[in-house]
Protein: L-seryl-tRNA(Sec) selenium transferase
Organism: Actinomadura namibiensis
Amino acid sequence: MEPTPSRPPADPRRSVPRTDAVLADPRLRAAADRLGRVLVKTAVADAQHAVRAGRLAPEDVADAALAALPEHATTLRPVINATGVLLHTNLGRAPLSPAARDAVLAAAGTTDVEYDLAAGRRGPRGTGTLDALRAACPAAGDVQVVNNNAAALALAATALARGREIVVSRGEMIEIGDGFRLPDLLTATGARLREVGTTNRTTAADYAAALGPDTAFVLKVHPSNFRIEGFTAAAPIRELAPLGAPVVADIGSGLLAPDPLLPDEPDAATALADGAALVTASADKLLGGPQAGLLLGRRDLLARLRRHPLYRALRPDKTTLAALEATLRGPRPPATRMLHATRPALRARAEALAAALAAHGVDAAVTDTVATVGGGAAPGVELPSVAVALPAHYERPLRARRVVGRMEGDRLLLDLRSVDPADDRALGAAVRTAREGN
Ligand SMILES: *Cc1c(COP(=O)(O)O)cnc(C)c1O
């Protein structure tokens, strides 16, 4: 019998399903409605490429494309923050409360953000949010919201001090992070900085000597991400307010009232009671809200800020206004809960998680740790915390599963103080699948 000649392998390009045919798959059509055609076509093209390369069977193109599609039409992905840094700037600072997330969704379509439904005409913008902020800080004569604290400072410096002097201590000329230096921002507005005192000591007399006809305001900045210790002196707001010039206080982290857990952290109510004319703060630090800048203080100053053309360039959008209002009116946001969680409660969660993992053969131990506030707030404050410790080789596969922990020696710590308890289950699942994929 003659041997049958072996056939040359079929040209894989001939068997690659055509794009139109794949896109006709109802599941991919539904995905295109949800995510947009561009993302779906890219996923299909990648699958077709895999067929050409011999890595995928032609009949699996639609399934492979579906599996590769992102969950949402954004490259921003949800992450579990197990670093123990509560307000991690690289991870988006404060997580929004369920009430705030819900408010964002509700406001995302067409809304009455600047429309008076009762009168049927244009209305003032974001009044509900401003009312909520006034109610949360009654000491403020008036309030305003912009895109972040840097915007609040830029607006105050531009509207009040352009071509004039801002008097500021040499100990408060700070860099916030990622190369953002406050003095650079302030001088970029056309204001001049009049530096007083020294790095470690500045007294009220130093300020008094610098005040003059060119002074627009005195600026007090909370050194929010470092501490100077030893031979130091700083003049408090209540000693500066009587000098005559308005005092603008950048309190940084956005506490509206004192928090006994953070005795060294300034708050808006106290700063205003001490005589600050204007307070600026971030909304996405200790307040636990969306990225926004808060301005609270004297009515006449806020009126000048609102009238300045720059305000229009700095005003926040409807989803931010909605999230901020829900944060101010709604239940305690996650950041506040994380800050106030007790160590026994954290230990109970860690033990439950470690036990569940041990049952799946994961080498998990419970260990006491120290968490921090982060995000340029409460420097030096150590929060007692509890973590689940895993062998170091879990670090990479967990990051691939969007869990970011903290390496300490040869162990990966999953610090539970920065994890929303609602995510404990997902955290456990990520560790289990990371183990299986090791
Ligand atoms: C964080 C911080 C800022 C910057 O605030 P953003 O909201 O990030 O613009 C400015 N000043 C102080 C003291 C801060 O802590």
User: Anything to note?
Assistant: The CA atoms of residues 150 and 395 lie 34 Å apart. The pocket of pyridoxal-5'-phosphate is lined by residues 148-150, 176, 221-222, 224, 250, 252-253, 282, 293, 376 (CB under 6 Å). The chain has three domains: 13-68, 80-88+336-437, 97-331. Residues 13-68 form one domain.
